[in-house]
Amino acid sequence: MEIRKEWGFVSVQIDYNPYYVEQLKLLGGKWLAKEKVWHLPPIQYEAVMELFQRNKNGLAEQTKDDLMKINEIMDDLKRLGYSSETIKSYSNHLKAFLAYSEGACDLTSINSYLLYLLENKQTSHSYCNQAVNAIKIYARKFSNIEETEVIKLQRPKKEKKLPKVMSQNEVKRLLEVTINEKHKTVLMLAYSCGLRVSEVATMPVANIDSERMVVIVHQGKGRKDRITLLSEKMLKQLRVYYKEYRPKVWLFENPDKDGPITGRTLQRVFNASVAKAGIQKSVTFHSLRHSFATHLLESGVHLRYIQELLGHSSSKTTEIYTHVSVKSIMNIKNPLDQL
């Protein structure tokens, strides 16, 4: 462990410890992956020194105990059939909460933490709600809070946000500026099939069915299988890609070719192409899925079919795209133009 007061920042080098990681984040720390060091505002120097001095003796056992409890919950969730992504998210939420509360789990510490997420970290309401879900599971198993109190834990009102959609011209530009065949195939598949980033990353080669012209999505969100469209143009691109890369099990392999590519890598690929295409909108990889659904709706495809292609359990989830489709709005004459 090394703490240095540099010009304009405090640098901290430590071995990985989830407790310290969360505490440094609470102090405004930023992890610099290349340098493998934490940088914090200079005003936090005393707080950093106090943090490591305060926890010098009792930290290891407390952290070990917290991690054992979290791992026990993660095992429970695996047995209950939760997805790996949900389990990972819940684990991270619990590590962050227990670091904030220093291992405590009572109504005061929970409500204080939720307020901290909303006011200090300014997280989204959906992020905060997921934290509540994780903390409830922990509270039921390891706290003395009555079940009636756990049920009544307050959560923020669900936000109603519109999907971030790109126009067909923007999608075209995005694909045109993407020269790398692997990267282009990734983006085309996400858009042409309406896939989530995790579904693209873990797509097996065997799930591309060129005979039936469908793509099989195995165990997507909510542990649901579904089929989606395989376009002629997409099939041609897949064949070009296959000849060059020769993937075996996973359609998009990691650099070592011993597993699938990561979702984070795909997001970086998308961001690079967005910047190169000069798209000014605030969009993410998931915007390709939103754009797929919106463009289908605007071309006259019935909402029920779009629901099936996206794998939505409820039609209400799919109906959000009616709010971003401009087809009907374009037929309305603006009163300003009539002056």
UniProtKB/TrEMBL annotation:
Pfam name, any one: Phage_integrase
Molecular functions per Gene Ontology: DNA binding
Domain Tyr recombinase positions: 161-334
UniProtKB keywords: DNA integration, DNA recombination, DNA-binding
GO biological process, one term: DNA integration
InterPro entries (UniProt xref): DNA_brk_join_enz, Integrase-like_cat_sf, Integrase_catalytic, Integrase_recombinase_N, Integrase_SAM-like_N, Tyrosine_recombinase_XerCD
Record carries keyword DNA-binding: yes
Function: Site-specific tyrosine recombinase, which acts by catalyzing the cutting and rejoining of the recombining DNA molecules.
Family: Belongs to the 'phage' integrase family.
Protein name: Integrase/recombinase-related protein
Species the sequence originates in: Petrocella atlantisensis
